[in-house]
Design a protein that fits this description.
Order of helices and strands: HHEHEHEHEHHHHHHEHHHHEH
Low-confidence stretches: 1-12
Strand content: 5-15%
Shape: globular
Structural class: alpha/beta
CATH superfamily of the largest domain: P-loop containing nucleotide triphosphate hydrolases
Number of domains: 3
CATH class of the largest domain: Alpha Beta
Distance between the termini: 7 Å
Radius of gyration: 20 Å
Helix content: 55-70%
CATH architecture of the largest domain: 3-Layer(aba) Sandwich
Length: 319
C-alpha cells in the first residue's frame, strides 16, 4: 500500500529514479548498514568515498572486504590508479551511469560513503568550477598554516558574507577553495552557486545519516587505526611507493598514506605517525559531521539500528 508521502508526489517526482543515501563520518559503520539495506530492498551499492576509487589502496581506505562484496554488489571501488585525477565530476558521471544500468533491473541504488561533495554532486547537480589554480591554492595553504583556519574564514567573510555564513569557520578545504576562486576570478563563489543553484535534482532521494556520541565515535576511530596498522597499512604504503606512486601524489596525501609515508621519509617516528593519524582522522570525522549536519534533508539514525533504516527505506519506496 502506498504511503501518504508516496501518494502525494507530484508528476515530475514520479518520473525520477529513487535512490537511497547512507552517509556519515568515517568509521561509523556505513558499509554494514548499506549491505543490510541492499539485501532488504534489492539494492546495489555505489561507493561515495573519494579514496576507495583507487586501486592498491585497500587497508588505509577501509574498503569493503571480499566477503562484504559477496554479500552485496559494490560499484566505484578500484576504478582508478593512484596517479589518476579523480574528482566529484568524474564520480557523478560514473555513478549516474551505474544508476542508469540498474534501472532496467528494478534495482535500488544505495549510495554509501562519507565524501559529502561526491554525494551532493550526484543528487543535486554539480557546480563545475574551473580547475584549482595550484599556485594560488599553495599560497593560501601556507597562509592557513601560519595564521590558522579561523583567520582565513574571517578574510572570506570580508569578501563573501554569504559563503562565509554557509561554511564552518574550521572547514579549511571549503574556505580556501572559496578564497582561491575569488582570487583567481574576482568573483565570489556564492555568485557561482546562485547561478548554478544545485537544482538539477535528477533523482528522488532518501538521505539517511549515521551518527553517535562524539566520544564513542572517536574511540571507534582510534580502534580502527590500530586495526589498520595491525592489518598492514605500512607495507601497503611501501608497496605503493615501490610501484612508483610517490608521496607527492594527491592520493598519497590522504589519511594514513601521508602518515606512513612521513615515517618512511623519517619526518617522524612510527609512534608519532600513528598518533597523528588518529588525531587527523578524528578531525576529519568532525569536519564530515559539520558538512552533513548542514543538510536538513538527512534523517539521522544510530548505527546498528538496521530495522529503522530498512523501515525508512521501505516507506520511501512505497513497499
Amino acid at each position: 500500500m502506498l504511503t501518504e508521502e508516496r501518494a502525494s508526489m507530484n508528476a515530475s517526482d514520479e518520473k525520477k529514479t529513487d535512490i537511497i543515501v547512507i552517509c556519515g563520518p568515517t568509521g561509523i559503520g556505513k558499509t554494514a548498514s548499506a549491505i543490510a539495506l541492499s539485501k532488504a530492498v534489492n539494492g546495489k551499492i555505489i561507493s561515495a568515498d573519494s579514496m576507495q576509487v583507487y586501486r592498491y589502496m585497500d587497508i588505509g581506505t577501509a574498503k569493503p572486504t571480499q566477503e562484504e562484496r559477496r554479500q552485496a554488489h559494490h560499484d566505484l571501488i578500484d576504478v582508478a590508479d593512484p596517479d589518476e585525477d579523480f574528482d566529484a565530476a568524474r564520480f557523478s558521471d560514473m555513478a549516474a551511469d551505474c544508476i542508469r544500468a540498474y534501472s532496467g533491473d528494478g534495482v535500488v541504488p544505495v549510495v554509501a560513503g562519507g565524501t559529502g561533495l561526491y554525494i551532493k554532486s550526484l543528487v543535486s547537480g554539480l557546480f563545475r568550477a574551473r580547475p584549482v589554480n595550484k599556485e594560488v591554492m599553495e599560497n593560501l595553504e601556507a597562509e592557513a598554516d601560519r595564521h590558522g583556519t579561523p583567520v582565513m574564514h574571517h578574510r572570506l567573510e570580508e569578501i563573501d558574507k554569504m559563503a562565509a555564513a554557509r561554511i564552518h569557520p574550521n572547514d579549511r578545504f571549503r574556505i580556501l577553495r572559496a578564497l582561491e576562486i575569488f582570487e583567481t576570478t574576482g568573483k565570489p563563489i556564492s555568485e557561482y552557486h546562485a547561478e548554478h543553484g544545485f537544482s538539477d535534482q535528477p533523482y528522488r532521494v532518501l538521505k539517511i545519516g549515521l551518527a553517535m556520541d562524539r566520544e564513542r565515535l572517536y574511540q571507534r576511530i582510534n580502534r580502527r587505526v590500530d586495526m589498520m596498522i595491525d592489518g598492514g597499512l605500512l607495507p601497503e604504503v611501501e608497496n605503493l611507493i615501490d610501484r612508483g606512486y610517490g608521496p607527492g601524489l594527491k592520493s598519497m596525501g590522504s589519511l594514513g598514506y601521508r602518515h606512513m609515508a612521513g615515517f618512511l621519509c623519517a619526518e617522524f617516528s612510527f609512534d608519532e605517525a600513528v598518533e597523528l593519524l588518529k588525531r587527523d582522522t578524528r578531525r576529519y570525522a568532525k569536519r564530515q559531521m559539520t558538512w552533513f549536519r548542514a543538510d536538513k534533508e538527512i534523517q539521522w539514525v544510530e548505527p546498528g539500528n538496521t530495522s529503522d533504516i530498512i523501515n525508512k527505506a521501505r516507506n520511501f519506496l512505497g513497499r
